[in-house]
């Protein structure tokens, strides 16, 4: 226990984690604060008195990546916890409980102060008692440990959450369940089976997937003389496991079930016998020492044939497949109540060569026999379906061998196949037989070997799909997972990686047993995770002790030599594949070979038809046939691919068997098909787009054009990787015309859907191709497209450089339209960097050319760019809206859905400025629908962020937040950091104006970091300004002034007068906080003048409040320029009140609830100061309604406090007390870091209210 001299008299500190996180000093409950502060305490307590590094503590509480504000917030939480835990300690004296050292924070409360630690120690003592044979002591210790939990159903750490704490909660829950199992086991060891049955029934219901509870219930019921109920409990558990997980109970419970069926004497408890309590290992409790469990009656061995090959010690993985084969097969073949056979089962294991079919069959067969199933006869036959030097085995000959083994003399074996099959079925009748047929060729070879009756399993192994066997259950094997493949290499090489067992009581740092290293995983990957290849690689490594795993990985890296490396002692992957390949007819062989020339990830019947030069139907038949042979894979309907190693094998075959001319012709057919298909898809999405002049080829067969924009998008998404690969392949072949066509056709989709890197790679190939041709216009087009992709990736400086280069190339080529396109792209890059004046000039020059050449789409894009420039630099919103309306009409005319949607969204923003929030929301909903039709996720995010803005002003903050969050997710998914920063800036603004300062600051700082990485200066200016306003509200005046000045300087450089006006107002309020009302008046006046000049009513209302505050604080007279004269309203309280009234009127007109609430609040305070209480109450209640509507809890509490003071001064103490209580309740619900005092108010009737905080 840490020392606590000051508070020792009050009693020791105690903490609870087994339920809600709680703390006591003696019998007094301590308030550990907000959930995240309690999370800090919980993580430190889980450290068990060990130091927890600050970075680890931050990750454990906030997750990764942690927000920027996490460290300072952590320091606040630690300070608050120290005050709670040691209230009498002076701030400068060292803490005796929560300390900091170079190693981290330590919360030292001693071994008995944490219930979770006491629980784990109690469980350990209980287990030790059972190990000594002390069942009574074990039951007592475990029962006492379990009593420490808050309640029977309460989870640990129930009121805190984080990734780390959730893991700890799960760990403690698992330990609790295990302790319950062991306590019940101890009670059973003591003969308390009657007492535990009701509890076990509840536990089985609470933990339906924990087999041990079910086993304990079965044992308890059996010992109560309820054998039927015990068997029923087993059936219910098995049914539940199958329905929930598709698996059967484990071997221990199945064994117990068999012993209950057999009424095994070992299940009866004899407390007088020594060693009876040695039952720590499962539900077979009460088995006397030295007596192993007896075999089930159904497992009694008889004389018979046992031909199974030796089980393979290197077997790895396949747990699910084994459960399916062993568990379900055993149940289907045996009646679990009587132990008698139920009929013949046919199971097929199929998969490609080398996937481990035979190994799985051998392991499953041995497990079935070991469990007492099919114990009479086990037959094995190699059907040689894919033998290199012999034909497939004749089923008649196989039957002859089986009959001789079954005791039929040679002279009595019939000659005819049907007669042999009938005699074979007769000899197996009534026997529990397992027949394994390896390497089956087809159904006709297998069908005569089917048993007829009895409890028989026919297990068939084949490389080919055997779909014609009635009632057969098929297990299809895929290659291993990476971890399984790595584990097989370890097993084969007999090498072990160093590791460490995790600690018994993990705290913040839990050493993990290392997984496979990178080199091992790389070897497994280069083997395609194919078990045969992986095993051969492991054996190769075992025979080369001087090689490291990295050495082997390097040898396997080269595609052309990989299959040669996968060979040991005459066994090769090549040979295994050859057996399948050489069994094919020539058309399928040719298809198998040529498909390896496809450079992409997979193919469809359409693209494969182009590659093979065959019609679609013939091609699909070939693909399906190869799929049945497991020489192709299909992970999605209508899409086919080679396994990686089969691809290498097929590649070698096509180079050996097909001429270079044939291979080149096939590849070019595929390339031309992709060129035509990609151009068709882009034209469907962008009807105004035209290819770069290359003639379309007579691809065979011609691709079918997509029926809709959605179909085009779906095709481009599916074929994205293939388009990139084919583009690279055409460059390698020197077919630069195809390279240019593919790059140009695909780049718009790739750039729009967050595949900018892929797009850039293709466009650079296209640019190289254009340079080789010497065509300046095509070079300019490629450079221009590269610039547009950079712009979409937020690299606006690079975008501008490329557009300038494209402009020069187009001018040199004499391409007027190319010049206009480059200017349009340059204008877009300038706008993204906040250089709206230069952007407008470029769009103006482009507009003239587009109009002259009749390019309506180009005209629409230029008008849209001009509209944005007017909006930000001139403040002429009506003219800007007119330009956007014209662009809107032109986009609609040319069929550009995305452009139409974007202009709809921008017109919605114009409605927002004018206060038409319903129209703003309606426009953004229409835009969202259009963007969804176009499949444009970025556009959807833009529309949602605008819709959120409208919803917030309409008093629907929850809907607004939902739209903001979805917009943020979409921008992140599409890697649009510029859009992400914009949404974070808006979210930060909304949260700070509604009093959620901590969250708002975090969002604004994240936005600022994104702006620094993207060069988005406009959003940076707004973010600096918003962050300055927030710091001002938190009374961090010096920091606020620096941020506001930086934002003001940047907005002036950019010409963003909206942001400049907001920054000036922030400086005005800073001056007011620092006691300089005159400076406040000057800055507020400048802000108001600028807001009026750019027709910004939102900024105008804000600035009017600033002017009013300057006047009521003694800032002298304030004159504001209005039109040709000066708008002047005296000085002092009366003049300030008039400005508040004007602000309220403007804010109400444009429906700006936050600004109007501020104006009404100040009007109420002013009226109270001027002794007009009725008017003051009316304004304060209006402010209260507005703040409740936008969920501004902090503002609502402030207004209620003012209202309480007014009611008290006017002789209404009960009403005043009600408002004070409401304000206090609101404040108590606000996190401590979000609570700030009111701004100061000049001496007068309300002078004291600023500090009268509840």
UniProtKB/TrEMBL annotation:
Keywords: DNA-binding, Transcription, Transcription regulation, Two-component regulatory system. Residues 269-295, 494-515, 1233-1254 are annotated as: Disordered. It holds the Pfam family Trans_reg_C. Residues 494-507 have a biased composition (Basic and acidic residues). InterPro entries: AfsR-DnrI-RedD_regulator, BTAD, OmpR/PhoB-type_DNA-bd, P-loop_NTPase, Sig_transdc_resp-reg_C-effctor, TPR-like_helical_dom_sf, TPR_rpt, WH-like_DNA-bd_sf. GO terms for biological process: phosphorelay signal transduction system; regulation of DNA-templated transcription. GO terms for molecular function: DNA binding. It comes from the Bacteria. Residues 5-109 bind DNA. The keyword Mitochondrion does not apply. Residues 5-109 form the OmpR/PhoB-type domain. PROSITE patterns: OMPR_PHOB. Belongs to the AfsR/DnrI/RedD regulatory family. This is OmpR/PhoB-type domain-containing protein. It comes from Streptomyces alboflavus.
